[in-house]
Amino acid sequence: MFKKNFDAIEVLLVSALVVFLVLFGIYVPTLGFLGLLLMAAPICVITYRKGIFQGIIALLLSGIIIAIFLPYIISVVFCSINFSLGIVMGAILKREKPINVLLGSTAALAGLFALGAAYIIFSGPKDLLNNIYTSFESFMVTYYQGSSGVTPEEVKQFVKYFEIYLPSILILLFLMWSLFQYRVVSYILKYLYKIEVTKFGNFKDIHVPYELSLLFLLTLVAAFLPIPTEFKNAFLNIESILTFVYIVAGASVLLYILSKKLILKNAFLSKTISIFIVLLFVILPFLSFSLVFFGVFDSVFNIRRFIR
Q1: Is residue 55 within 8 Å of 86, Cβ to Cβ?
Q2: Which of 45, 66, 176, 195 could cross-link to 75 by cystine, CB 3.0-4.6 Å?
Q3: C-alpha angle with apex 290: 285 to 294, nearest 5 degrees?
Q4: Contact between 34 and 25 (Cβ < 8 Å)
Q5: At CA 282, angle to CA 277 and CA 288, rounded to 5?
Q6: Model pTM?
Q7: Overall fold of domain 1-200
Q8: 20-61, pLDDT tens digit by residue?
Q9: Domain ranges within the chain, ordered by starting residue
Q10: What is the Cα–Cα distance from 288 to 285, expressed in whole angstroms?
């Protein structure tokens, strides 16, 4: 009986904390953004420790309270985010590898966002998308109108590319958010509850399956095929996501090579220089292409085998 009462109190406290983080994020400028980033962490922790049922109760209770203070549609949005980063991540955190946890929560976020976007598109005005696109384009042209060297045509071209690559941009943002959430939850479980969760392996050991290199090659070829624009845009988004994946994989290969070849007497100095070089390759566009090559090449041939 005491345990049930304690669980109920814990659910209430988690719900209250989620509501506080949401309201903090909405009403506090600048720093409030951090509250929105962290709002799903309490639900993820209680789902991991107590189970899905308690997590869902905390989610629904916090959603009802948020709906009292904010418009119900905003409450639904926050509940969807907390479901993906809280319930989904907490439920699979015990059983899956970290990469699968990230992919699962990212897929849940992207799926719920797609459902919400589809609902708005099909239930809203007929020209809703065109109106949003036109308004955004007008805003960008007005914003950059006074900038030297930027013409309205260049701004419109940027908006067009932004529209094409928006799905991949959102998916990568969701992935980064999931990674941030995973790190926060890991630290909470470790230092507050003395629970160790599965950690990521060494960054230097990242290796992408060779099957993805075939998909990457297909996306590159599809850009030149006479296919409908919708399919071509889909391939472009897959290509941009895989490019990001191979940049990360290439950075891993480069760091591995530097760790084997750049050996100084001071180990800390050697590691610092290696990380600085890798960051240069990531930041500078003309060098980041070489990271993509490293990543693809390692995916197919596993070049670490030849480096001693």
Answers
A1: yes
A2: 66
A3: 140
A4: yes
A5: 110
A6: 0.90
A7: Arp2/3 complex 21 kDa subunit ARPC3 (1.10.1760)
A8: 999 999 999 888 899 999 999 999 999 999 999 999 999 999
A9: 1-200, 202-308
A10: 5
